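User: Structure please.
Assistant: Input sequence and predicted structure:
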Amino acid sequence: MPDSRASLYTLLRRKIDCESGLLAAPEAAEALAAYLDSLAALASGRSGLLHAVLPLLGHPLTLRAGGSDIEALRAVAEGGRLGWLPEAAPRRILDVGAHAGYRAAFLARHYPDATILCIEPDADNFRILALNTLAYPNIRHSGLAAWHSTARLGLAGYDEANYGPRLTDALLPEQRGIQAHTVPDLLAAAGMADADMVLCDTTGAEAALFADPGAPWLAGVDTAAIDMRENLVPGTRDLLRECFPARLFDIATHGPTAVFRRRSAARSLVPPSLKLLHSAPGLLAFSLHDVPPEPWGFFILDGESCQLHPNPPGGPPAAIRFIRRLAGQSRLVSGIAHAGTMAAPIRFTATLATADGAPLARASQVLAAGEAGRLSIALPPDLTGPHLVMLETAMLQGAPHNHNAWARFLQPVLV
């Protein structure tokens, strides 16, 4: 009898080695394929949870061994399922049939300014979806089903590849325990006015979701990507052509996915916002200079803001520095606040410079205790590549001390 412990050890060592290779060469397709193969080998013949670390996403993902998760992850990680994404960023994305959340996690990194609503009525899928997407502040979740009307649905079976349940409203009332709502109701419950991008992989429920080609919510959709597996309800293809008519939409096929793209929706490309601090997946580097060593000298608050306590009067400015790769951003913006009481005024300064420190633009403002304000710098046009951002605080000359000088930069960002 083979030693299963030795076999498992070998597979785990292979995963670790392939993971190291991928982290060393995150752009290498061969390294990614080898790593995914190592996960598939571990998942084969076992049950339980595995974790994958993809540099593309910046944090570990959970997948279930013995099922379809590894192939779903492979399809997203290798670009096959999302190779059609538009360059112009959507504002609000509806992901119906979000499965384990791999697609949504990728979209959250690709479109950091978009709000994403994931719909997944299967309880086990939803559990893994929540694990994989909870760290993203721009992803919202619903464990309800999307339908053409408010209804109670039942389980008619599972997709052959086990991506999710097949739901129906044609069962007896006692067999229908899954709550469904319309798309407008689901969006409203998530605080979203509409969705300009819709992704749909519902293992046969597409006909119910797009039952009304005249539904008002469809008027706001610029891009729709719909999985067209062979288990579609008869007539679904014709129904989708009515919802996204050829006179208004270009239609393309990417593997099993049909992509409908509105011709008049070519919004101008807007550079993504670059946060200087965040609490989302992925590590953003910074360096501190001449910051007081006490615990209140520097700390991050609210995930995207920080306290930068000034040195005593006459000392050097306390500074935090960031290197960010610009792609046409036009403005550096930050809220500022003097959160102290019974304290002297503070000077707040923001500077954009070349990567080697040559200043390009600067703004400064003085706040008294209890005051708040905003620094905004118009950047030179068409800046690209690595640049230095510096945020500084200092007491004014003649101030008696720096006691209670709680200086805070609030959500500094390049837009």
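Helices lie at 4-24, 29-43, 69-77, 102-110, 123-133, 183-189, 206-209, 236-243.
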